[in-house]
Amino acid sequence: MDPNEIDWSELITRSLMQQVGREPTRQDMERLIAELRQAREDPEGAGIGRQLRAMGMADLDNTVGMAFVQQVIDLTLQRLESMGVATATPATEAPQPLAEAVGLARMLLEPFLKPGAAHDQLAEQLRPQPEDYAKVFEPAYAGVVQQAYERIWDEMKPVPRPNAGQRELLLAAADSAQIRDQGAPGAFPGGFERIRHTLRPGHVWLCWKFVKQGERLGMAFDGLVRVDDHWAWFPKCWRVLGSIDA
Fold it and tell me: What is d(CA 60, CA 48) in angstroms, rounded to the nearest whole number?
């Protein structure tokens, strides 16, 4: 049995999200991860073995079967942890919880991976609204950034498009206050170090990759921001901002 033959981890993740019954909070994600870690030591006792059987997995009543379950649980843990729950949120800020933002971003970006996806139309919904710039960037930079990105969106029409065979999504998230005070996480482009003073606190920033199953390298994108009730994409904002001397 090969845990990668069918994406059991994705099936389990979806099942867990359905059990939560709402958009998962940070506390929900932490609880699910803790339960999965416990289940790895006793899959049958935690009910994971029975759940996998019900989903169509082969007989697991042997050592090989239990080892297989543990591999699937490990892959599921990696998936949940990649959704951003492990990233700390500064206690002095009250931004949208990272885990919640990552869950919303996953729902936003996964349609790009579907066969026959209308990438141009999907990308258009990521275009920043005119008022977003003043909310996301400090006043000294917002106007110039808006001029630059309106030209980019009008002329270049950026589209986050996966390559052939890329059907999985990897996400990393950080609060803008964290980026300003501590620097961006290692999964972010290094250019964020140069522009962290330009970001207003109170927003979750994300970068992501479209990758083939089981791989970590792929098509990389950054600059996705949750603004109020919608998303705004500022691709490679560290390049745009890097040339501005306010």
Answer: 11
Q: What is the CA radius of gyration of the chain?
A: 20
- Residue 94 is predicted with a pLDDT of 33
Q: What is the distance between the alpha carbons of residues 221 and 219, in angstroms, rounded to a whole number?
A: 7
In three-state secondary structure terms, 246 is coil
**Residue 201 tokens, joined:** 């606190």
3-state secondary structure of 129: coil
H/E stretch holding 226 reads strand 218-227
Question: What is the structure's pLDDT at 93?
Answer: 38
Q: How far is CA 169 from the centre of its chain?
A: 7
- Non-local (6+) Cβ contacts of 13 within 8 A are 76, 79, 80
Q: How confident is the model at residue 5 (pLDDT cuts 50, 70, 90)?
A: very low
**How much is the pLDDT for 246?**
44
Element (H, E) at 209: strand 204-211
Distance CA 219, CA 133 (A): 26
Q: Which residues pair with 173 in a beta bridge?
A: 206
Domain ranges of the chain: 8-85, 98-242
* Half-sphere CA count of 133, side-chain side, radius 13 A: 17
Q: How many helices (H) and strands (E) does the chain have?
A: 12, 4
pLDDT computed for residue 61 by the predictor: 57
Q: Cα–Cα distances in Å, from 246 out to 136, 138, 174, 194?
A: 16, 10, 25, 13
